[in-house]
Amino acid sequence: MNNIELTLPDNSILEFQPGLPLDYKGPLIRGAAAVSVKTNLADIVLQQLTGDNYFIRLTTGNLFKKLKAKNWIAQYGLYSYFILKNEARKEINTIGKFHLRKDQYICYFTEGSNCNVLFEKKEDFKLIEFFYSPKLLEELTPFFPELKTLLQESPHTILNGKGGWSIPSMKEITNQILDCPYDETTRQFYYDLKVRELLFQLLEVSFKGSTKSYHFTPFEIARIHEARTILEKHIDKKPPSIRSLSKQVAINEFKLKSGFRKYFHAGIFEWLLEQKMQQARQLILNTNKPVKEIASLVGYPRTTNFITAFRRQFGITPGSLRR
């Protein structure tokens, strides 16, 4: 992690200190090395776990001034970058510029390069990135022959266009990594499996996504994203019907449903259920709120219905997860 430099607008540099802050209560990658910086301008924690032919890096924090993170990409391979909270603008010399928002990701091949990430002065942020070496990627070339061509001929490539929205299974894998339940004797094996599982998902979406596609105008794309924003405001209440939602965003139901699946990799109510369950999961893990109250906060008046939905989603009851 010594290849990262944090710069303020006046060009002064924030110095990292080894270890986690004593009062740190955020997400953990168990067994990871950590550095942090805490001043009246920024509060940032970096954690990195390095395995055979991969690494996982988690960045969390809060900014009180605009901040630029500069680092040097030293290794050739595949990088994936997920925004878990807030947003960031990133520029890689070999790839170009891109802007990622919450729940979006980008996945790219690159050789060694300079890289800048700009964080605006906003609320707290959280992002996680993964690096996969060519040796690890070669394990999957029998299933994704396109990988072999990319490794040989395309040192600077963004997979799946300009990135996309994380599908529910990708978000679940990142959550499992951050909630690793195993001790040091078994967790490395667990991380090895989860890193490969996520890589498989990324390649599946990039190379074997649905070939059937519909054209959407810029106006329609904007309205589909507006529908997502409307649904986000209904986590704790009954959502509008698809007919009502299509009227609110001024596109027909077919375009709304097909566009939602194309851009967010899930049906409308499948996506909404995922958001409800993920929010409930975080409340169970990070608060002492009763299960009945959490059920209400994610739109379930009946606690029994909530428990059934939660078990169906995660294979465990809310009470068991908390224990």
The radius of gyration is 20 Å
Shape: globular
Overall residue-averaged pLDDT value: 85
Fraction of residues in helices? 25-40%
Beta-strand percent range: 25-35%
Low-confidence stretches: none
State the distance separating the first and last CA atoms: 34 Å
Quickly count the helices: 11
Please identify the structural class as seen in this structure: alpha+beta
Label this structure with key terms.
323 residues; alpha+beta
Write the layout of secondary structure elements.
Layout lengths: L3 E4 L5 E2 L2 E2 L14 E6 L3 E10 L2 E10 L3 E7 L3 E9 L2 E5 L3 E5 L3 E7 L2 E7 L5 E8 L1 H5 L7 H8 L3 E2 L5 E2 L2 H11 L8 H22 L9 H15 L9 H8 L3 H12 L3 H19 L4 H7 L5 H12 L3 H5 L1
Antiparallel strand pairs: 1-2, 1-7, 3-4, 4-5, 5-6, 6-13, 7-12, 8-11, 8-13, 9-10, 9-12, 11-14, 11-15
Helix pairs in contact: 3-4, 5-6, 5-7
General description of the model:
With 323 residues, the protein is an alpha+beta fold. Helix content is 38%, strand content 27%. The protein is built from eleven helices and 15 strands. A hairpin with a 5-residue loop joins strand 1 and strand 2. Helix 3 runs antiparallel to helix 4 (187-208), helix 5 crosses helix 6 and helix 5 packs across helix 7. The longest helix is centred in the middle third of the chain and has 22 residues, at 187-208. The model has no long low-confidence stretch (mean pLDDT 85).
